[in-house]
Amino acid sequence: MKITVIGTGYVGLVSGACLAEVGNNVMCLDVDAKKIAILNQGGIPIYEPGLEDMVKRNVAAGRLQFTTDIELAAQHGLIQFIAVGTPPDEDGSADLQYVVAAARNIGKYMTEYKLVVDKSTVPVGTADKVRAALQEELSNRGMDLEFSVASNPEFLKEGAAVDDFMRPDRIVVGTDDERATNLMRKLYAPFQRNHDRLVAMDVRSAELTKYAANAMLATRISFMNELANLAEKLGADIEHVRQGIGSDERIGYHFLYPGCGYGGSCFPKDVQALRRTAAEYGVPMRVIDAVETANEAQKHLLLSKIIARFGNDLSGMRFALWGLAFKPNTDDMREASSRVLMEGLWERGAYVQAFDPAAAHETQRIYGNHPQLTLVDTPEAALAGADVLTIVTEWKVFRSPDFAVIKANLKHPVIFDGRNLYEPAQMRELGFEYFAIGRK
Length: 440
Ligand code: NAD
Ligand code: UDX
Fold this sequence. Notes:
The protein is of the alpha/beta class. Helix content is 45%, strand content 14%.
């Protein structure tokens, strides 16, 4: 099938490549000419395991192409995926300007039936706005063309995006007409595994499903974070508690890891947007309000522990920092806990020597040449001459370090670990002062 994907960010590029991989003829459109130039030169603008090879393979096979030409893209795909950003507005609601602009562009140039699919995470009711924008553009042109609008939220995780798309747990498809349902079933047939993964529903339910999933996961994390903080005060160990509750099938083990707060491009903004929607409709969602407040506090936790240990004036201190990305296997720094920590340390006069396997570039883009930040190329280089070590992202390379090297480099044998990578008892034996999250 001929497919257009509008927006070549994490979601658009992964979707485009994976849809090409199963034999579709995919055109990816972006308004960012730099991104398209990188893609047309054989590179990829983001770090995502397995993506570059897949993109190259499908470009070489003639199934995947990249363009900034809006007219060409609008005419190419029978199915038009909208995968543009939906960042938070000033009041926390999702900013739909890019989604509506994408829809308008389709309406401006389409010449035959199109199935327009919202893949961006959008509030309930957005499909109606997309429909209205398309209709208005068609009316301006004096055209009367048929089209359908569907909702197909994306559940991929950064760092595992290709695998998540190729082997989905479920494919949520919201449609209001049979033609759209049939096209979506046909498109996703190659992604079905041992049983039907497609969950068909109406458009509004599909739109809400995405927010429900992210808010539920964020709630689990915030609950565990607060429980960990309590465990610490009680002299209990959250790691035992996690295993104890996770073994209950109704709870399960996933997403129960306490830490220094959740970040990323989705949880923070989607929790906020769901709050806004609930407020708009006058429906109290007290649980979601609390999740957001708890996460904000949790992102400050490492800094509070540092202040409790070394005082509020950290001037002249040098902090080794392992991990910058909001989670491992990505270079994404959006809402990363490392940012809250670094900014707090800088405000108090401290220096940061940071290492991340993928996010140094992105950090440099955000902070420029910050006078209190040095980005280094190895975990060991971050330790050189540092007072203490702080860990914010659980990259595999940090999991079993040479503790003798750490100790030999640090002025104080102190580690603040926001991801519970080590065993407290072992750390004590090795002579470290080890601050983790909720560990005994
Ligand atoms: P992104 O910011 O990485 O990419 C969005 C792209 O859209 C950018 O390259 C931008 O230039 C382009 N764009 C904006 N307006 C355009 C237009 N009118 N025409 C063509 N291109 C345009 O965003 P992302 O992380 O891929 O997220 C996209 C959507 O998917 C968001 O709604 C997000 O919430 C959702 N989502 C993201 C993830 C994730 O892990 N990143 C997972 C699931 C869902
Ligand atoms: C999330 C959803 O998982 C995905 O389904 C959706 O499509 C987009 O949003 P992503 O943001 O890529 O994916 O990362 P995820 O693995 O969910 O982690 C989000 C944040 O939660 C990270 O900061 C991570 O460190 C944190 N986290 C995750 C925890 O603190 N504890 C956990 O147990 C799991």
